[in-house]
Design a protein that fits this description.
There is one protein chain. By secondary structure, the chain is an all-beta fold. It has one domain (3-51). The chain has no helices and 5 strands. The chain has strands at 3-10, 16-27, 30-35, 38-42, 47-51. The relative contact order is 0.35.
């Protein structure tokens, strides 16, 4: 499962939602995100930007 230090979800109306220190899965119907705040399922996704600045832990 991919990890990101910063994950930005760009929605169809060009708004953005940012998450920090997450794991995520891309699906046909959106993206599922796990963070310290819990699990999120976003279906209105135009694109995503994921940045990883440190080595991933297994």
């Amino acid at each position: 499962m991919p990890q990101a230090d910063t994950l930005t979800v760009v929605h169809h109306d060009d708004t953005r939602t940012r998450f920090k220190d997450v794991r995520y899965e891309l699906h046909r119907d959106g993206i599922r995100i796990w963070s310290d705040e819990g699990e999120h399922h976003v279906t209105d996704v135009l694109m995503t930007h994921a940045y990883r600045q440190r080595d991933a832990t297994h």
